[in-house]
Design goal:
Layout: H1 2-22, H2 26-46, H3 50-75, H4 87-103, H5 116-132, H6 138-146, H7 148-168, H8 188-210, H9 219-237, H10 239-245, H11 248-271, H12 286-325
Helix pairs in contact: 1-2, 2-3, 3-9, 3-12, 6-7, 6-12, 7-11, 7-12, 8-9, 9-10, 9-12, 11-12
Subcellular location: Cell membrane
Organism: Thalassotalea eurytherma
Protein name: DUF4040 domain-containing protein
Length: about 325
């Protein structure tokens, strides 16, 4: 049954990708990209990779769709006619695809229990992580402890993405537009539903943030979910009201503070005589140090991801609102 579900999902994924290639309506393309991410999340769930599915659903099908719609509002709905020949791009795609397929020939068979990952890597984490880290969720143990330095690099990349976006699009406050005239003022049902849903979204984000040690979740997912709550607030009640709740300058401070909080854990562990991000040195008990270190660095991840996602949305939305005013 699991193989049948995988085949059906992969077939739907392939059909969605093919439809995306031939569509000229960019709004429909964005919607299909969201469906593509949702199907990918279902495949990850079927493969028991719930943490990856959680991230794909929240980032791929959620925030990315909103940001692409913001981009569409600045560019246009229809793809411009292409007067160039498609022969050269077709050749490049075929050569690249052939190289990728050739590269997979040396890979071990999918699901083979004799694969090196099942003989060496997985047993090491399964057997030793409860003793060395002490967390029920081994995915969090790997990402936050064993691969803590790599995860720090990922957070820095997210922060660098914010710098890249802000270097191209600045966040403009809507001084020319009154806050009462923005948002969905006449949609009273949406106002009531948003007021009921937004606190629940934030509560769920906090649950995901501080429950990642025991189940699927963590700073990346929690930051995106919390940003989604503020984005919903901005869409329903207007961007100026969102600025009044959390301003752009405060978000800049949050984005940098999250990265610094993560890095400070590593520096503190070095100060205590250990290596960088050696959580065992944070407390007298090594397992307690692991718990404290992971909670703090996950909090830093959540703060940075939340601030970056919301800042990027502010950048796109403020440009759109300004163009509508003009």
């Amino acid at each position: 049954m699991a193989e049948l579900i995988n085949l059906v999902l992969l077939a739907m994924l392939a059909l969605t990708a093919l439809r995306i290639i031939f569509l000229k309506d960019l709004f429909a393309v964005i919607m299909l990209f969201g469906i593509f991410s949702f199907l990918s999340a279902l495949i990850f769930i079927n493969l028991d990779a719930v943490d990856v599915a959680f991230t794909e659903a929240s980032v791929g099908a959620g925030i990315s769709t909103v940001l692409m719609l913001g981009t569409l509002a600045l560019t246009g709905r229809k793809e411009k006619a292409n007067s160039h020949s498609s022969f050269l791009p077709l050749v490049v795609v075929c050569i690249t695809g052939a190289a990728l397929i050739y590269g997979t020939l040396d890979m071990p068979d999918f699901g083979d229990p004799d694969n090196p990952v099942h003989q060496h890597v997985a047993p090491r984490y399964i057997e030793e992580s409860p003793k060395e880290v002490g967390l029920p969720n081994m995915v969090t143990s790997v990402l936050a402890s064993y691969r803590g330095f790599d995860t720090l690099g990922e957070v820095v990349v997210v922060f660098a993405a914010l710098i890249a976006v802000l270097s191209l699009l600045s966040i403009r406050k809507e001084t020319e537009q009154d806050a009462s005239e923005s948002g969905l003022k006449s949609h009273h049902v949406l106002h009531v539903v948003a007021k009921l849903v937004i606190p629940l979204i934030i509560l769920f984000a906090l649950y995901v943030q501080f429950h990642g040690d025991f189940g699927p979740g963590g700073g990346f997912q929690a930051g995106v979910i919390a940003a989604a709550a503020l984005i919903l607030y901005a869409l329903v009640f207007g961007l100026p009201n969102a600025f009044a709740v959390i301003g752009a300058k405060f978000l800049y401070c949050m984005a940098s503070a999250g990265v610094l909080l993560y890095a400070s854990v590593g520096l503190f562990s070095m100060y205590k005589g250990g290596n960088f991000l050696d959580y065992n040195k944070i407390a007298a008990e090594p397992l307690a140090g692991q718990h404290y270190g992971i909670i703090i660095i996950e909090l830093g991840v959540g703060i940075t991801v939340f601030a970056v996602m919301l800042s990027i949305f502010y950048a796109f939305s403020s440009q759109t609102a300004r163009s509508n005013i003009k």
